[in-house]
Amino acid sequence: MTSKLLKSLSCLFALSLVGCGGGEVYTAPAKDEFAHGDELLSAAALTEDASHSLLATESKVCVWDNQLKARLYDCITGQGAEHIELAGFSANKSRFYISNRLSVTLFDTRTGRSIGSWLTGQEIARDIAISASGDTLVIAYRSGKAEVINTRTGDTKCFDIHRLDINSVALSADGLWAFTGSSDKYVKLWSTSDGSTRFEQRLATRVNRVTLNKAGTLGFAIDSVDDRIFFDLANKKELAEVASYSNFIEFTASQFINQDKWLLTGSPKMKMRLYRVADGELIAEYEAKQQRQRTSVLSVAYDGTQLYSETSDGLLQAWPFEPKSSK
């Protein structure tokens, strides 16, 4: 019997609020909430500090100032704003992108004006990542190719990174390194300047999601069954694995927070979870309010004090986190 299976069986009999390592899993009700509307969202994104929300329905895209609880300007219609499935902010909040998987449009967050738009041609975009300044976009394609766009000059480069679909892409803050996960079971850290691979690792099955820290030195990957691994990319080795008895965990959002000590995740089953990077231990879990039969957490954020979730119902919730296990 493998060590992973033994670990899974031991976790199966743990109490619901106790992690596999024996530590208490913190949970609490939301401290605050704000409904952006009553329409079902096709995509959503929060800025890193949750000060702004980007909300896409089937026919429009709206940007909210969550501190003022007001839209920054009239919702965007046309301009490729229909049927949006991918969206995100740059870390400095100056820009945001939207995509229907066949085209990508970049906007100025302050004004809502389009900065540029790119067609994917014969390709289908699976995921998109943006650098902290918004100067670099990486589009991950179903073909296994990745396109790197300099949004200031319009220059583009295309690289053959994987043999099969790239399901997820994350980008370092400076835009120099991309971390991708593919249906070919590999995760790769590669240079956006020349496409050269710095690190690669094969997981057990299809890689569904990856996360990268700002420095490009710490990565996380989750496959379609039970590999959930933290990677020390600087030293090219596995760091820890998420402790869980459950197979088929799916993340809809994830980011490293608190100086890379924690990984914050959202799921399609109303859950937001917080993991300790050092040992993969689950240290907090929250359940978003369900307003429809299926509510997903589409985006997560942390402002240094509170955790935040934005759901497919357009509901922003703020959550406390104060357990001893966070240290």
Number of helices: 1
Q: What is the CATH T-level topology?
A: Methylamine Dehydrogenase, Chain H
What integer value in Å does the Rg equal? 19 Å
Oligomer: single chain
The major beta sheet can be summarized as: 4 strands, antiparallel
Protein name: WD40 repeat domain-containing protein
WD repeats: 159-200
InterPro entries: Quinoprotein_ADH-like_sf, WD40/YVTN_repeat-like_dom_sf, WD40_rpt
Pfam family, one: WD40
Question: Keywords for this structure?
Answer:
327 residues, mainly beta, 45% strand, four-stranded antiparallel beta sheet, Methylamine Dehydrogenase, Chain H, 1 helix
Secondary structure blueprint with pairings:
Elements: H1 3-12, E1 32-35, E2 43-46, E3 52-56, E4 61-65, E5 70-71, E6 86-89, E7 95-99, E8 103-108, E9 114-119, E10 125-130, E11 136-141, E12 145-150, E13 156-160, E14 166-171, E15 177-182, E16 186-191, E17 197-202, E18 207-212, E19 218-223, E20 228-232, E21 237-241, E22 253-257, E23 262-266, E24 271-276, E25 282-287, E26 297-302, E27 307-311, E28 315-319
Organism: Pseudoalteromonas lipolytica
Pfam families: WD40 (PF00400)
WD repeats: 159-200
Describe the structure.
With 327 residues, this protein is mainly beta. The protein has one domain (3-326): Methylamine Dehydrogenase, Chain H (7 Propeller), CATH 2.130.10.10. Helices cover 3% and strands 45% of the residues. The protein contains 1 helix and 28 strands. The protein has a 4-stranded antiparallel β-sheet with strand order 1-28-27-26, with no helix packed on it. Strand 16 (186-191) and strand 17 (197-202) form a beta hairpin. The model is unreliable at 5-16 (pLDDT under 50).
